[in-house]
Amino acid sequence: MNEFNGDLNGTGKRFAIVVTRFNSLVTEQLVTGATDCLHRHGVDEGDVDLYRVPGAWELPSAVAKVAGNEKYDGVIALGCVIRGGTPHFEYVAGEATRGLGAVARDASIPVSLGVLTTDTVDQALERAGTKAGNKGWDAALSVLEMAGLFQQME
Asked: Is the pTM above the cut of 0.85?
């Protein structure tokens, strides 16, 4: 049996991060975690491009555009949707993740999902670098591994 696994070596690879400006208190921490992860795994600072979009609703279209330009080895989508008192949360969170899933299935490069969907600001902050680690880091680590695997699949 032949087995293939991605590695975490980012040397010579290029990545894009697409992040929402909405809930920037949280999303900026996700960006910090993602870029730290990429740099610690050999990705040069100049090989990471950061794209900012208004909110989670806009993530799928921006990620699709970035993934389709054949410039990158992977794309990291970062955002934060916090439940409020209306059903708006369900619509935005559901469509953002559904849209990113569709982009990931259609893209020729890996797309990593780093969109937090939480009930409270405290939960979001916990996942952006305090008690629960940094989900931006986790999303970057995932895209690094998948980029290595995609490279082997070629």
From this structure: yes
